Amino acid sequence: MEINTPQKKTILSGMQPTNDLTFGQYAGALRNWVELQHEYDSLFCVVDLHAITVRQEPAKLRKRSLDVAAMYMAAGIDPNISTLFIQSHVPEHAQLAWVLNCMAGFGEVSRMTQFKDKSAQHADNVNVGLFTYPVLMAADILLYNADLVPVGEDQRQHLELTRNLAERFNFHYSPTFTVPEPFIPKVGAKIMSLQEPEKKMSKSDANDKATVFLIDSDDVIMSKIKRAVTDSGTDIVYDAEKRPGVANLMTIHHITTGKSIAEIQSDFDGLGYAEFKEAVGEALVAFIRPVRERYTALRSNEESLKATLKSGAEHARDRARKVLRKVYKKTGFVEL
Ligand code: TYM
Predict the structure, then answer these.
(1) Does the annotation mark 203 as catalytic?
(2) pLDDT of 121
(3) 122 C-alpha to center of ligand 1: Å?
(4) Nearest CA owner, ligand 1 atom 26
(5) What angle do CA 216, 256, 23 make, to 5 degrees?
(6) Tell me: the pLDDT tens digits for 82-107?
(7) Ligand 1 centre from 30 Cα, in Å?
(8) Which CATH number covers residue 172?
(9) CATH number at residue 252
(10) Does residue 164 share a domain with residue 33?
(11) What is the number of the ligand 1 atom nearest to the C-alpha of 155?
(12) How far apart are CA 152 and CA 95, in angstroms?
């Protein structure tokens, strides 16, 4: 483990183990984690406590939590320089969430658009955990005094709530928490569905052609890209509002090749959608293949994966315990 030098700023982020990871999650968050880990004191967790706000099959949740951790590593998270752990292994997350729940307003939490969307999606199970989910997310972040939180666009509102809770606690008691900033990339913060490019690419889309998963085979990736919904135009021009399907494919191509949007536009000048989709598919296949292969190798050694997660949890817990102790003391709980 690299020494945590005090001048390094801290980042923390996480993903839910509710399905295999998608290219959207990679583009919006994971690729920035990989970049930033070299500059920042970094913590990345698999947020299994968050996952049970939607009904989960226990065996699947257990498996997927390990899958997601292995995928973090396959994408480039190095457990020798970053702290990699599973949220439920650090009980302080739930403990801090309770204190923050008692500071969060019912009204402000009701405004969270993800809660509104998810309660509509899971109308048969609108549980209290789903409602207070963003407060648990705030606890994840504040517990380590993260300065920066690399996430996709859909988490911006949760970050705003986190900042409000940190400021409220600091004001009400005394300065305790760092007020974190979101780190949302300029490009790729919202990869769109391949089938309905007006909405976000989602791991839980009922239409499996809408989402590229990081474990998809070459053929599956190619076929999803070829069948991606575009529009009736013919030229490859970036216009996210009028032509979201093509714009989304251009963004994907930019991320997998490093070419700028202007370069892509000029490369495909005069060519049609079929050629463009072929190139986008090929680059995406070439990009995902080594990630998938590393994932398969890492996932096949469960013992080593669990050992990594155990040491990550121990390290995270050491830090979390100190912050929680401070919070409990300020809150007025008796220390023994
Ligand atoms: P989750 O698991 O839904 O998604 C993980 C991350 O991926 C980003 N993302 C996307 N980015 C671009 N395009 C997309 N189509 C796309 N889909 C997902 C998300 O913005 C997110 O950054 N609440 C969080 C998990 C969480 C968390 C935290 C994050 C819990 N505690 C503390 C940061 C810090 C969530 O449900 O992400």
Answers:
(1) yes
(2) 87
(3) 19
(4) 14
(5) 40
(6) 999 999 999 999 999 999 999 999 99
(7) 9
(8) 3.40.50.620
(9) 1.10.240.10
(10) yes
(11) 20
(12) 26
Give, for 84, the enclosing helix (H) or strand (E).
strand 82-86
- Residue 4 scores a pLDDT above 90: no
| Domain assignment present for 5 | no
Q: How far lies 142's CA from each of 107, 131, 163, in Å? A: 21, 19, 9
| Ligand 1 centroid to residue 263 C-alpha, Å | 29
Asked if 140 and 12 touch (Cβ cutoff 8 Å), the reply is yes
Do residue 231 and residue 282 come from a single domain? yes
**Coil vs helix vs strand at 24:** helix
Tell whether ligand 1 has an atom less than 6 A from the beta carbon of residue 68: no
Residue 200 is a catalytic residue:
yes
Q: Would you say residue 195 lies in a domain?
A: no
Do both 251 and 289 map to the same domain?
A: yes
> Which residue among 154, 178, 199, 255 is best mutated to probe the pocket of ligand 1, counting the most ligand atoms within 8 A of its Cβ?
154
- Say if residues 43 and 85 touch (Cβ distance below 8 Å): yes
Domain contains 272:
yes
Q: Please list, residue by residue across 299-313, b when 16 or more beta carbons sit within 10 angstroms of its beta carbon and e when fewer do.
A: beeeeebeebbeebb
Per-residue pLDDT reduced to its tens digit, 123-153: 999 999 999 999 999 999 999 999 999 999 9
Task: Give the chain's domain count.
Answer: 2
Distance CA 232, CA 240 (A): 15
Q: 72, 26, 73: which is closest to 284 by C-alpha?
A: 26
Q: Residue 75: pLDDT above 70? A: yes
- 203 CA from centroid of ligand 1 (Å): 11
Residue 246 lies in a domain: yes
Pocket mutation for ligand 1, best pick of 33, 45, 47 (most atoms within 8 Å of C-beta): 47
Catalytic pick among 8, 9, 60, 203:
203
